[in-house]
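Handout, page 2. Input:
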Amino acid sequence: MSFVVGTAGHIDHGKSTLVTALTGIDPDRLAEEKRRGMTIDLGFAHMTLPSGREIGIVDVPGHARFMRNMLAGAQGLDAVLLVVAADEGVMPQTREHLEILDLLDLRRGLVVLTKLDLVDSDWLELVQAEVIAALEGTSLQGSDVIPVSAPTGSGLRELAEALDGLLEGSQPRPDLGRPRLPIDRVFTISGFGTVVTGTLVDGSIKVGDEMQTMPGGRLVRVRGLQRHNQKVESVGPGSRVAANLSGVDKNELSRGDVLANPGAIQPARRIDATLTVVTSAPHAVRHGAELLLHTGTAEVGCRVIVLDADEIGPGGEGWVQLYLDRPIAAAVHDRFVLRVPSPAITIAGGSFIDVAPRKHPRHDSAVRESLVRRAAGNVLEEELRKYPRGVTVGALLKATVAPETDVERLHARRLGDWIFSDDAWQSIAARAAHELDTYHGAYPLRAGMAREELRSRLGVPA
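Output:
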């Protein structure tokens, strides 16, 4: 069982140095990063904890200019190391990264106070108190604070043991049989071709599998797999993965694309979601706001349709429908973050409720009630309501990625491969009675309407 741990924190607080000290691997891979002494893009490493538990580590940049790269690395983590330099304390990007982790509902983490060798005990105590206060009211409230010094090695063993303990009770990522690999890197290797990397969720991949890149829809085949720089025949959810693909060129893929089973994901351009505005936001999220959406490894512009009000204020929550500038690959329950493009700040985030909704009227109580039921877990029931003329069971299951056993518990009418909501069936029955009354009024001497004619008039399947 493998886990993925990420870093977070302000620029120059020692995130990459800490990763190198823990793993022996320098996550800064770009020449410009080494020249400038700062992380620009995502970096990756791996290590074995004292218990033998393997973890992959995603190192993110701390500079505000590279926040989009940080967001691409922060999704899909099992735990996080919030890094704070002991000689500086909590800084602006510390707080913004913490807000992002809270919006992503990441609840397992440790605070690492780096540069322990540069401060005395009194100053360290003050910084510890400041950090604990900053965590109040966030998803990381109550996290342990561990002082370390990468140059001297002080505290590194305690950090590894604490991380081991943090992951001790963690459940393995569920294998739902529908693997998704949000792509965070695309590159080529001479003699092998295109390689993509990411954190695998929701299913397993094996060498030889035919897959599809979304939202483009290109069919590819998995030629090879690596996990922690070791060749493997298959990988399960929760693993950092490098997949060598045939059937696609590097230029046809980019960060934000998703590798999935053919037909398992449909491109989404309109999405229903719950939205929470951060308490520190300088203004409300207003109806019609143009913002940047970050989910998985994707970034896309969007327009926010506030469904229940004209705006959602700082610290508030509400229902929204997001209109995206272009399609993305997304799934129900995926977390997301919204940022203002200029001046660039994090303003809100939440969870996707429906990735293929109809366009909704605003200020409609029926819409709100449907979203509440869907968010509470009645996904099949609410999806079925979208089809006034019924839908095949296969199409319903594909739209909701639900197991077929859940269909049997629906309050619905099933005819062969077709299924109808109670409301749809009652509407069809009323229309049938009207059609028959009209027919008999027009042709009183006939025995009745032919079954196929009635079926055709109602638009129901044979």
